[in-house]
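A reminder from the course coordinator: this example appears on the midterm review sheet, so study it carefully.

Given structure:
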């Protein structure tokens, strides 16, 4: 990302409880290079920025802005839910029930190649709810019990997934192919254990670190999807249904301590509570652009009513270490 010194070009609105915000009017007079450098520097300094008033009207507008602000856009692999593709590297939000929130997480934190920056653009704001909250990962880490952090730092966390054609992303959606040989090659190259099931489904597991250092600042960040992808954050009726249909070992995804021990509901609730205590949010307005440093800042999605159209891009990949 760009040097934070470029952030001085822009007048950032800092209000408690809201993400850093920029008015489009305050940047219209800048040349493109200054605008790009300034916006990216704000993200580097504060972890996120919401730009309001850009007047983004359609997917073509959004694609142009995403490609202009990013160094490169990623093709998503290992998706946990399906997305609509608008253009190469430009997607819809993950398919997820509107009445269920998406807990705080860092995008693709279970992969080896993760986005350095997440990009969101709102074309249609929902009637109610649906905000994309953000939380500072270093602050969250400091607020967690040291003993719990120590254990996750020693052991990491384990993600187990069971792919089928009914719940979550299919094999083809997650890996970009349903060719078994290609899927197996990807898994081997990305430190993923795998096993094909008698019914043709795929089960995978991967161990990842729970804490990373930010590549620019060196700050230790709580960086994972331990709470979001744990079965405890599912709605109880959904959890019961999935266990009844697929069995406890056949859930679409769940998380454990790195040594395989279950993570108690109390731990998941603690993580959720700490995230919530450190979340800032701003309701979407049509035309908004939100940029998030994916290492420094976690993000979430509130439950919502009405139609909501938010486009997403994963940008500037960073290679993590197992």
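Designed residues:
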């Amino acid at each position: 990302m760009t040097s934070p010194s470029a952030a001085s070009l822009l007048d950032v609105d800092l209000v408690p409880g809201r993400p850093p915000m920029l008015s489009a009017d305050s940047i219209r007079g800048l040349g493109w290079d200054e605008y790009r450098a300034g916006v990216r520097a704000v993200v580097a300094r504060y972890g996120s920025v919401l730009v309001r008033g850009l007047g983004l009207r359609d997917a073509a507008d959004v694609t142009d802005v995403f490609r202009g602000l990013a160094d490169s856009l990623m093709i998503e692999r290992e998706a946990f839910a399906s997305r609509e593709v608008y253009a190469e590297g430009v997607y819809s939000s993950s398919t997820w029930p509107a009445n269920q929130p998406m807990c705080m997480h860092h995008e693709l934190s279970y992969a080896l190649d993760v986005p350095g920056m997440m990009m969101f653009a709102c074309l249609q704001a929902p009637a109610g709810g649906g905000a994309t909250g953000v939380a500072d990962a270093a602050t969250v880490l400091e607020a967690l019990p040291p003993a719990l952090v120590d254990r996750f730092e020693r052991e990491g966390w384990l993600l187990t997934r069971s792919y089928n054609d009914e719940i979550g992303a299919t094999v083809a959606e997650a890996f970009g192919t349903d060719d078994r040989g290609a899927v197996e090659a990807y898994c081997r190259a990305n430190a993923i254990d795998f096993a094909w099931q008698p019914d043709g489904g795929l089960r995978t597991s991967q161990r990842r670190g729970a804490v990373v250092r930010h590549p620019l600042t060196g700050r230790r960040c709580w960086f994972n999807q331990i709470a979001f992808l744990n079965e405890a954050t599912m709605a109880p009726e959904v959890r019961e249904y999935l266990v009844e249909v697929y069995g406890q070992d056949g859930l679409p995804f769940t998380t454990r301590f790195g040594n395989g021990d279950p993570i108690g509901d109390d731990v998941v609730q603690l993580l959720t509570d700490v995230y919530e205590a450190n979340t800032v949010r701003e309701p979407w307005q049509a035309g908004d652009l939100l940029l998030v440093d994916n290492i420094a800042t976690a993000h979430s999605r509130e439950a919502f009513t009405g139609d909501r159209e938010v486009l997403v891009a994963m940008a500037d990949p960073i290679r993590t270490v197992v």
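The longest helix spans residues 32-46. The two ends are 23 Å apart (CA to CA).
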